[in-house]
Automatic annotation (TrEMBL):
SMART domains: HTH_XRE (SM00530). Pfam families: AAA_16, HTH_3. Residues 194-224 are annotated as: Disordered. This is AAA family ATPase. SUPFAM superfamilies: lambda repressor-like DNA-binding domains (SSF47413), P-loop containing nucleoside triphosphate hydrolases (SSF52540). PROSITE patterns: HTH_CROC1. Residues 21-77 form the HTH cro/C1-type domain. InterPro entries: AAA_16, Cro/C1-type_HTH, Lambda_DNA-bd_dom_sf, P-loop_NTPase.
Length: 485
């Protein structure tokens, strides 16, 4: 019986002899020492082959290794063919990986240099191998991931980039990327299988039990595929090389931690960067909270250096290049930036309104009721994207934090601290601390240092959208009358 990596699952452009040997060895769970004992080949020779230092092994060496791996005829033939091609396979694989670059962003990054530096260094050094960037929809998670991926690519790491279907992406994908399909395959491998439609059955105690795949998918951390093999083409393409996999806009509730753990074990150089609305909450995850851009205090001296002001000015230039950043206009820009809490997508939407109103009018609307401004005039999808994202985040909150948001919306639009949360909810301090943490992770509040103390602010974007009443359905009587007519 053939075991291990099959030649059909491996691209001929990447099937170097060492990659095939390593793939077969890992598939059947052998260490290099164990393979050396079975094949009578030295550990050093096997290590050199797997690392690409030896590209043309002797025919009897290949035969002994194939015997040790217990390969069938087809896998043995693929191994012998890779040995005959010698350095061509290694060179092709190296050139292929060098071309794996992240998508190209459409706009420069503003105000995230510190965050990008931290992420790039943690991933480059291998200090963190799984980082999840979370934040409110439209806060700039994808743009930060693009910058981080670009820095790592400049440092020599190939980047496999996958954008989840339906995710808004402000970038130009590399259509010619030879491993785009591989990134898609890897993302599909990490997704939990769909649950069956059969309902669970209840025991005598009233608890429900799940059978089959649904039981596996419902276990902690999403252990839905313990026996699933990593994609053969991914093992063949990367081997021991350092690489970055980006899952942009991932739904962490649908990711399989068991499969990721195995992937990280078998690809020791792989790092994974995830952008999501909510954390994965799995062992080894580095949670990176992304807050909106820093905005200036409204009572301070206007300055064009604040990140939120710089971002808003860049969007204003696109809508109204005639607006000059003088002292008066900077004051209005600073107040708009502060009124929208430095939220990038909200600022971009507000700037689009300058095609139909002036800057003082825009400032007045923001300070009165910013909700109408959250729809981008030139792009109807941006407004719904922001509204849907905020709604999804609020709906996903536990009952306690969701109730706290409702109380904050009913209270004055001001900063609050833990003492105020205790007063509003009447709950113990530890419970209040956990609720505030949940809101920070969801991105619906942000830390505030306006008054030199530890405080928080409910985003006005959240306050505005949370206060919008749902669409009113017609009364049953009206529906009946319309039907009768």
């Amino acid at each position: 019986m053939t075991t291990g990596l099959s030649p059909e699952g491996t691209s001929t452009a990447t099937a170097a002899i060492g990659v095939l040997i390593r793939g077969h060895r890992l598939r059947i769970g052998l260490t290099q020492r164990e393979l050396a004992d079975l094949s009578t080949i030295s550990v050093r020779a096997i290590r050199d082959l797997e690392k690409g230092k030896a590209l043309r092994p002797r025919a009897d060496t290949v035969r002994l290794i194939a015997d040790g791996l217990r390969l069938g005829p087809r896998a043995r033939a693929a191994l012998e063919d890779a040995a005959r091609r010698g350095s061509q396979g290694g060179a092709g694989r190296h050139q292929l990986l060098e071309r794996c670059a992240p998508p190209v962003p459409l706009h420069p990054m503003i105000g995230r240099q510190a965050e990008a530096t931290v992420l790039a260094e943690e991933l480059r050094s291998g200090a963190e191998r799984l980082i999840t960037v979370v934040g409110l929809s439209g806060v700039g998670k994808t743009r930060l991931a693009l910058e981080t991926a670009a820095r790592l690519h400049d440092a020599g790491l190939p980047v496999l980039w996958h954008t989840a279907p339906g995710t808004a992406s402000d970038c130009l994908p590399h259509d010619g990327d030879p491993l785009t399909a591989l990134a898609t395959t890897c993302a599909a491998h990490l997704r939990l299988p769909d649950r069956p439609t059969a309902p669970p059955h209840a025991t005598e105690s009233g608890t429900q039990h799940l059978d089959g795949p649904e039981a596996a998918a419902g276990t902690p951390y999403g252990f839905g595929g313990r026996d699933a093999q990593p994609p053969a083409e991914l093992l063949a393409a990367l081997g021991d090389r350092d690489a970055l996999l980006v899952l942009d806009g991932a739904d962490c509730a649908r990711l399989d931690f068991a499969r990721l753990s195995r992937l990280l074990r078998e690809l020791p150089g792989l790092r994974v960067l995830v952008t999501a609305d909510a954390p994965w909450d799995v062992p080894g995850e580095r949670l990176f909270l992304l807050a909106p851009l820093d905005a200036p205090r409204p009572d301070g001296t206007p300055s064009a250096d604040a990140p939120a002001v710089r971002f808003l000015l860049s969007r204003i230039r696109r809508a109204r290049p005639d607006i000059v950043a003088d002292e008066r206009s900077l004051g209005d820009v600073a107040r708009v930036a502060h009124g929208l809490d430095g939220h990038p997508l909200a600022l971009a939407a507000a700037a689009s309104w300058l095609t139909v109103c002036d800057l003082p009018t825009l400032r007045g609307i923001v300070e009165t009721d910013p909700a109408p401004l959250l729809d981008h005039l030139s792009d109807g999808t941006s407004g719904s994207h922001l509204r849907d994202g905020v709604t999804r985040t609020l709906d996903g909150l536990p009952a306690g934090p969701r109730d706290l948001v409702a109380r904050l919306c009913a209270a004055a639009d001001a900063d609050f601290d833990l003492d105020e949360v205790v007063r509003l909810t009447g709950r113990p301090l530890p419970d209040c601390g956990r609720m505030v943490r949940a809101l920070l992770i969801g991105g619906v509040i942000r830390p505030s240092t306006d008054h030199g103390r530890s405080a928080f602010r409910l985003l006005r974007v959240v306050r505005a959208l949370a206060a919008i009443p749902p669409a009113i359905s017609p009364a049953p009587a009206a529906v009946a009358a319309s039907a009768a007519a």
